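Input structure tokens:
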């Protein structure tokens, strides 16, 4: 049990240090995907492109998302995707997302984080997996 408390204390200290570094830079915070997903108010599921499905292209699509102080997506850069069509589908979907503004000491700040979608073919059908879609608004 003590080991758990030590890890938690280290995590909290590193989190505070990280926020201070980010605040000193340019008021853009780097956040994890779980933070982005918790703050998402509108989530649009990417479509599995028919061309990717017919070619049996599967795998993760990793996207770096930049969110403004107001909670809108300023930029979505696909870092990795199985093909260009999947990359385009993810990019188009993420530009429709919106977020609650992230506050740092009561002031809205920009955030940057990564979101991962998994494009799979299950029992001959295309599936896009993202855990946040089960609990967030869908379009």
């Amino acid at each position: 049990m003590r080991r758990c408390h030590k890890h938690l204390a280290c995590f909290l200290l590193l989190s505070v240090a990280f926020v201070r570094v980010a605040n000193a830079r340019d008021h853009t915070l780097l956040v994890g995907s779980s933070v982005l997903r918790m703050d998402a108010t509108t989530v649009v599921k990417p479509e599995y492109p028919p061309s990717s499905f017919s070619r049996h292209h599967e795998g993760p699509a990793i996207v770096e998302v930049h969110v403004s102080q107001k909670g809108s997506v300023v930029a979505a850069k696909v870092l990795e995707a199985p093909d260009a069509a999947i990359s385009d589908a993810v990019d188009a979907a993420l530009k429709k997302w919106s977020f609650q503004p992230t506050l740092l000491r009561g002031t809205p700040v920009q955030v940057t984080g990564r979101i991962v979608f998994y494009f799979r073919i299950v029992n001959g059908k295309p599936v896009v997996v993202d855990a946040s879609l089960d609990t967030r608004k869908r379009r």
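The first helix runs from residue 2 to 25. The chain has a mean pLDDT of 81.
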